[in-house]
C-alpha cells in the first residue's frame, strides 16, 4: 500500500475505505482534509469549491450541507443527479467524503436549533443513499445549531458500519457543541466518549485542534489523541470554528500545535470564505505539516496520473 503522500488519482480510484486508512497511517501525520460546501455560490464560480480546495493542496475533500436525496453542487452541472459525486471525484482526482449529522432530538439545547432535511441526517436511509452515490468515506459530526450529541454519534457509528461494511471508512466526533448542553468547551468530549466511538466501529476520531475550542490546549488534545491511538484508531484534528478564515500566522500556529498533539489527519473547515477555507490558508497549513515538497507535488499532480 502506498502512503497517501505518494498517491495519485489512479491510486485513489482503486482504494476502498480500509486501503485509504492504511495509506493515511503510512503518511505519518501528513494528510490534509478540506471541508467544502457545495450548496452556496463557490469562492470563484467558474469551478467548484472542491476543485479549488484540491488545487491548493487538500488530499481529501469533505462535503458539507449536502442532501443525499437531492444531490447538487454549485459550479457543477450533471444530467443525472445521482452521478454527481462520481463526476466530482473524476474532476478533482481525490477521495470525497460526506458529513452526515446524528441529531439527538431529546438532547438539552443551549440555543435555538435548525431543522435539517432527512438527506443530511445520519439515518439508515441516508447512509444507504450516500453509499450508492459513491462517497469514499463518511464523517459523523454536527454543524452549529443542529443538536448533534456524542451519544447519538455513537449510535450512528453502528448504523454506518452495518451499511458500509468492514471496508468502509468512518470518521466521528464533534468540532464544537452543535447546540447541545454539557458538550461545550472543555466538556466537549472525554476519553470515555472517544473510546465509545472506537468500540462502536469508528476508524478515525475527530477532535478539535488546540486553540480552536476553549480549553483545548496542546497538552489536553495530545492526551485525547494518545487515548485514540492506544485503541488502534486514528485521530483527525479539526479547525471548524471559522478560524479557517483567520490570518496565516494563526493557521500556522494551529497547524504546528496540531502536529505536536499527534494528529494523523489535519482538517480545515468551510467557513473561511464562500463555502471553503481561504485557499491560501489550505496551502499554508499544508506547508507547516509536510513542507513545500509534498504540498507543491499534491497541488501540481495531474488528475490523469
TrEMBL record:
Pfam families: DUF7916 (PF25509). Signal peptide: none annotated. Keywords: Hydrolase. Residues 5-305 form the DUF7916 domain. The keyword Aminoacyl-tRNA synthetase does not apply. GO terms for molecular function: hydrolase activity. This is Haloacid dehalogenase-like hydrolase. It comes from Neobacillus novalis.
